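Newbie here. two chains, one complex. Structure please?
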Amino acid sequence: MHSRTTTVDPHAVPPPHGDVVLSSRVRVARNIAGLPFVNRASASQCQDTLTLARPVLLNNGLAEGMIWVDLTQATLRDRKLLFERHLISKHLADAEHRRAVAISGDETLSVMVNEEDHLRMQVLAPGMQLAAVYERLNAVDDAIESRLDYAFSPRFGYLTACPTNVGTGIRFSVMMHLPALKMTNEVERVRRAAKDLHLAVRGYYGEGSESAGDFYQISNQVTLGKSEAELLEEFESIIVPRIIEYEHQARRMLLERNCTMLDDRVHRAIGALRSARLLGAEEAMKLLSRVRLGAHMERLKGIDLAAVNELFLQVQPAHLKLHAKAELEPEEMREVRAELVRKRLS
Amino acid sequence: MKCDLCNKPAVVHEVTVRSGIKKEVHLCETHAQEAGIMPPGQQPINQLLTQFVISQNLKGGGSGGAKGATPGTPAVVKPVNKTCGACGMSFAQFRQHGRVGCAECYRAFEDELGPLIERAQNGGTHHQGKTPQRAGSSIDRQLLIQKLLKELDHAVAAEQYERAAKLRDRLSSMNMPSRGGSTMH
C-alpha cells in the first residue's frame, strides 16, 4: 500500500469542541439485495460482491482520489495500519475471506466491503461535526444506492447480518477525551448517563478495547424505531453537550481543588515524553493524554495540539513500522517510539 | 441454557405471554448488555435471572411453548427447526452465530426475531427514517420474491417438483437464489 504522511497545518482552525471531542464518525451498514450475507456467502459469492461494489465505489464521484485496497492481497502491516487509522475494523483486518476497502484520498470516507455486512461506509471528521458528517455520508449512501439495490424491509428497514443493527443501520459515534473525569474517578457517571440514553461506551479501538489514552467512544445502540434525524438531534443537543459539560466540570474541579496534582501530572508527562529513550504504546497513550489535557487547560504552553493528536496514531505498532520502514522487535519498537515522540514534541 | 444469539450460557431470561402463548428470550451477559438489559456491574445477575415480563394484553404470534407461564418457573427452550428457504440457514445456526444468512431470513424467522429485535432496540419494532430512493420498485420486487419463495417452500414440502422447478427458474431469472445457497446473480 502507498504510504502516507500527514502534514499538520499550524494555522488550521481548531475543530469544534476539540478540547473534549477528538472526532465524529457516522457509519451505515448496507447489504446488497439478492446476495447472501457475508457469513453465508461462498468464496465466489464474496468475490461477486467485490466485483459489484468496486466500480460503484471508485467511479461514482463519491470523493476525490478514491483508492481500492484488496485486503486479501494486502500485507499484515498494511491491514494493521488501516485498522490503527480507524479505516477498517479489526474483524476486516484479521479475516481470511475475500474483502476490500475503498478509501478517499483524504481518508475521511471509507467503505468496507464484505465486513459483517456487504457494505459498511463511514465518514470521519475531527471535533464535534456529526451533522456535517452525516450529511456527507447520506449523500454517499444515496450515490451508492442509485446503482445497487439494498436489502430492505418495510418493517425492519435496512437488513443487516446482525439483527441488532436493522432499521437505519446507522451508528453515530463521537470519540471523547475524558482525562479529567478519569482522574476524578467519575467516568462511571458518564457510563450511567450513557446507559440511560441507551448508548454504548467503547474504547479507542471500538468493541472490547480498553479506554487507551482516556478516549471513550460513545455511540447509539438503537437503530430501529428512531429516524436518523432523531438520533442525530439526541447526540447534538443532549448527549454530547452533557458529556462535554461533565468533563468541563471535572476540569474546573481539578483546577480548584487539585491544581498542584494536575500540574505535577501534566508536567511529568511532557517531561517523560521529551526525555524517554524507551516508550511502550500504553505508556505513550497515557502520557499523551495528560499532555493533551494540560495543553487544552493552558497548564502547558507551546504544545502543538495537532501534533499531539497525530501522535496518538503514530505511536501505534504498524505506524511505527511504516515510519521505520522495517519490521521491529518489541524493544526496537519502544526505542523508535520514544525517538519519534521526542522529535515531535521537542 | 444457551444464549439466543450465540453459544454462551444465557444469564438473562425473559418470558412474554401473548394471547396465552408463551415467548421466551434468553441472552448471555454480552448480548444482554448490548440489548441494554444489564448495565455493566449495576444490576445483580440473580435479579436478572428472575426478570420476567408478563404481558397479557399484547397481541402477536408465537412459535410454541406452554400456556400459562408463571414468573419464577425455570424456562425451557423449545427447539425451533425453521430453515430459511433462500440461504438454507436454520434457526439453530442463527442462534449459534447470532447472524442471519440473508435478507430472506428475516421473513423466515420473523416470529422469533421480532421480540429479540424489539428487546435489543429498546422497544423499537418498526423502521422509521430513510428508505431507499428506489424503494417502490425494490420493495415490490422483494415482496414478489418473498411470495415466490413461500410458494417454493410449499411446493417442495408437497413434493411438487415440476412446480418447484418452475418457481426456481422464475426466481433465478429475477437474480435471486433458489434453495441451497446457489449463486444469487
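Moderator note: Chain B touches chain A through 49 residues (CB under 8 Å). The longest strand of chain B covers residues 12-18. Thread marked as resolved.
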